[in-house]
Amino acid sequence: MIEVHLAPPTGHKPELDLQTVVLLAQSADDAFERCVTLALQKTRASTVMIMLRRAESDELEVVAAAGRRSEVAVGRRLSRGQGLGWHVISTAKPYLVKDVHIRQDAHFLAGQPKPGMYLGVPLLAPDGALLGVLSADTTDSPEILGEADAQLLLLLGQAAGVAYSRWKALDDARRSAWQYQQLAHLSAQLETLSDPDDIAREALEMLLALSGFTAGTVMTLRADGLTHLAMVRGTPEASDIVKAVLSEPHKPSGLVADVMASDCSVAVPDYMAYPGARPGVTRLYSALAAPLRCDGKVVGTIGLLQLDSPREIPAELVALLDMVAARVDRAQERVGNFRQMRRMREAALRAVGRMIEGRDGETFGHTDRVTTLSLRLGEALGLEGEALQHLRWGAYLHDIGKVTLGDDILRKPGPLTPDERQNMQKHVIVGDHLLRDEIFVPREVREVVRFHHERWDGAGYPDGLCERRIPLLARIFSVVDVYDALVSERPYKPAWSHERAMAELRRGAGSQFDPQALAAFEELFDHDV
Predict the structure, then answer these.
(1) Is the dihedral of CA 31, 32, 37, 38 positive or negative?
(2) Predicted TM-score of the model (pTM)
(3) Residues 296-306: pLDDT tens digits?
(4) Do 483 and 521 meet the contact criterion of CB atoms below 8 Å apart?
(5) For residue 297, how many other CB atoms are within 10 A of its CB?
């Protein structure tokens, strides 16, 4: 067993046309296949293999083979010290062994020692970086390998290294372009989302698609200082494993604690050797996580997990995770600002309603009561989401047009004159016009304001609409508004009992009120809702 010391090239054109490998290869795999095929032909060895070094797992992986047992060679992984290729890796020089069957560190595809020779040369990138090993052996063959074969393998390995590096650079460029395209798509998608769970789900789905990792997680930091598994995505098996370990709120530890303490991404290619590994976790091999922030403070983490086999974690993937985390931060901040604005808007609209009820001489709490009852009735009739929001805003603003009426009308203890009643009825039109120029007030809200005094039989005001021509939200609110007016004390009447008010409403079923809405309203009280 010797290291082969090669003489400088003589200047002669080598027997092998290296351009055959470099220029005609259609992919990195194709370059390797051409390399081992040509090496087998030129050296007349029994088997030729190319093994790439996998730094993340510290293994040599057979990626191409030609000759005997080549079909069982590809995909085989040799850990450090297993196989003579590790000597080539450690020295970065050609290595020739005359009698491999006596070597304890030799690896035989047949599973048992065989006589023969071994020749391994380093597979180098154009910049001199060590990619792996190109090897030939003469197991069960009388062929002799020597310096000429080593020179040939070096030249051929150099060509294969060039081709591999070229195609890998091209693949990396394509992958990066695709990743940035997906990142741009994610950014646009997050701008359309308003639910934190939807934001986390979109981010994790994209990360899993781009990285190929087994599972993705979002951990959040609660007010009590414990971390909580807010979201997990991945295969059903992986999700179940993650939930079994992280589902219960717990004190930040391990990877999550390191990310929160350092306020930066942490990558763990070998989780088994990680000092912060959680006790009892046996199937997690690689992991990385990045911080999620709100107002500059770390409030959680987003991460990727690889189960059952180790994964390389290149710097590009860490950078991608950081970019996704930053986009999630911005989306969550936008949602938080939107929710704050919505709360402020809700408070302002409610304040308007309460101010109007004070001028109208109504009992305190009318706005809150009709809003609560309207929402219950709307839910009973199947409304949800935006429809309920529109109904709530309509309840807040239904009498906003009364701001133009004087106290002589609003607080008059007796019946209104025909002229006064006509002025009173104009408040729905005035309210509609007041809100029409407010771009944040949807049409459905203005419909509650304008049409809540219309009647099912068409005898209402201001437009004499009937039946289903009256918008549904206005029909719903009409029932609630009249009920609350009946059971509340007003300047011109005492409060009625619930039973008397319901009897009055039933008399108006099919004439004043939508029969379906009134029936659902009665059921609210039948079930003590």
Answers:
(1) positive
(2) 0.52
(3) 889 899 999 99
(4) yes
(5) 11
